Each structure stands twice: as structure tokens, then as C-alpha cells.
Amino acid sequence: MSGYTPPAPQSRSPSVYRAVHDPEGTATLSTTVIHALADCTGVDVTDCRFSLYDAVDPDALDALFRPRHDGRPRTGGRLSFVVDDHYVTVTSDGEILIEPPESDRYAPR
Q1: pLDDT per residue as tens digits for the range 7-56
Q2: Can you give the pTM of this predicted structure?
Q3: Judging by DSSP bridges, how do beta strands 17-20 and 95-99 pair with one another?
Q4: Distance between CA 94 and CA 96 in Å, rounded?
């Protein structure tokens, strides 16, 4: 996907994967989320076994955090949903946090 740069894996704790969406980039927020999920689970994005459509409407996700019609950014928003047992939280500042399923949270990485 053009314009997508994989984020440097960072986390607040060993069990949380963190990525950041660049709203000025060419990738949509939903695309960044699916790439982050693929990175987090260690699968190629083209081979993903999960779909955002099962948890959230990708177009609605993109629109939710898109700048307002007058260009002002949306602030203070947060949305959480579950994809393939991974708890995903997206914030209006572009932060994406992915927590693995309960059984994987304490597995060595």
C-alpha cells in the first residue's frame, strides 16, 4: 500500500502494541489499523485472516476522526473495538493501541 510506513513497535507495557496514524499521509486510518494488526500478529497484511468489517465500518472509522469541515482537527475522541480477540483502541490524535487476547498477554515476545 503506497504511503504506509510500518510504525516502530513501541508499547506502554510488554503486552500492548502501539502504532501512530499520520493524518497527513496517504493511508487512511482504517488502513493503518489493519496494517498495525498485521504487524502486531506477525502476519503479512495480504494474508490477514481478520477483517475490520467484522468489528467496525472502516469508512465510519475514517470519518469519525477526519478533520472537521472547516479543517479543525477532532480532539478528545476514543473508540475501542475487538478484532480477532485483539482489543483495539484508536484515539483522535492517531494513537492505535492493540492488546492481544487474554491468553497471549503474558506470553514471552
Answers
A1: 554 444 558 999 999 988 899 999 999 999 999 988 898 887 778 888 99
A2: 0.78
A3: antiparallel
A4: 6
